[in-house]
Amino acid sequence: xxxxxxxxxxxxxxxxxxxxxxLWFEHTRKCDGCxxxxxxxxGCATGRELWGAYRLARIGRAS
Length: 63
Description:
Elements lengths: L15 H15 L14 H14 L5
């Protein structure tokens, strides 16, 4: 058995606000409709939805 460090592929204990921000950020890096937009509201429908979920999580509401 290996004595090396074991890394989990599952993000355990991630805060909902940070999870929602990560999902939005990953989306905007890949989406042509969201890349280079100065405001999150100027992106595609999916990007706006992900940003809305992040904003709700940021103020303490469930996403």
